[in-house]
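Let's practice the habit of predicting before peeking. Look at the sequence and jot down your guess about where helices and strands might fall. Then scroll down.
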Amino acid sequence: MNEVRYYQKNIMVVDDDPDIVMSLQELFEREGFQVTTADNGRTCLVELEKGFQGIIILDLMMPEIDGFAVLETLRSNSETASIPVIVATAKELTTDEKNRLSGHIQALMQKGDFLNDEFLEEVKSLIK
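Done guessing? Here is the structure:
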């Protein structure tokens, strides 16, 4: 995946499942992260317009604007193009979908792997 590092412990959790959002928020706050949450892609884009800078954990299947569209918007804007993104999904991705993500994200995680040490270390690895 793309090698991008971020210097602050800011993270945005973008997911329409409130249980996942709450679990990840608690996990990262315990680790000293400042956590912003968004329950859909539109809210994520609004937070970016407000100036959010940090790591984004992005679900793919969401109402209004899905994760693929959020990622395309991020990467097409010079101000947000280098923001690190970890895609976290329960979706079984097709080859075409994997190709759409390739080179645009730092990691791809399955939702079942969220609360393990590997996931936490993946996020921490993006911080210098």
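How did you do? The chain has one domain: 10-120.
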